[in-house]
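Please predict the structure of the following assembly.
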Amino acid sequence: MKAMQFSKVKGDKNQHKVVVYALSTCVWCKMTKQYLKDNGVEYEYIDVDLLNEEDKQKIRQEIQNKSGSLSYPTTIIDNKVVVTGFRKDLLKEALGI
Amino acid sequence: MTPVTIEQVRKRAEADAQTYGYYLVPDPDLLQGLLEGLKINEDRYGYPSCPCRLASGNFDYDRDIICPCDYRDPDVAEFGACYCRLYVSKDVYEGKVPLPTVPERRPLEKQSRAFAPPAEAKPAAVEEKEEFVKVGPKLWYCKQCGYVVFRDDPPYVCPVCKAKREMFAQIKMRIDFLG
């Protein structure tokens, strides 16, 4: 079984560790990824719906532990700031873009 | 089963919005993205579960998030849009109020139980299939409202509560002639 992998998107603004937990079917997740990309923010993401059952379970636990909820997209910045949903305002503030 | 087309998904959503007095999100890109997500889920799971929620693939656990989901009515009433924002209120549609952000109303346990089901809490599978009548008309009942119909196949939608065909189950009948 392949290990679960986060996809990396390169960007000039790489001073923060940005992780996006997403669904491949979710338009708001796509917009979050696009917004980060358009602003040159380096980030990694994982499409949870495409994982195998075991990894899904692990990732769900991870999101729940970090954010207390289970919504997509959940964006976690530097392992502490949690942004639930596509919230330009909050991403802007947290990332200084 | 022939795969559903985007146009079918769109028509279905439009018809449902009209029936229940809602509107589809006016931004065309957003609408297209949401419809595509629904189509992918329908192709993947056999039912159009919410594109913005993680489905388990188990119908019994995902029933509440099949679009239009169980949370649409209270969410549109309270926030002006459903969770994924496919369905919006008139005011949002007309641009009088901006498209809101809608918090997840679905209880966490509902999602969690789909992924870590305790052995005894598994949904009762359709047991003893042999006892079902196989040909000719049968009795079907709507699991949502209890409507009963006698015909070969369950209706596409429940004429009473508009539940989808998947909500119908056959009523098991057994006739014993020997007391």
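The first helix of chain B runs from residue 6 to 20. Residues 126-130 of chain B have pLDDT under 50 and may be disordered.
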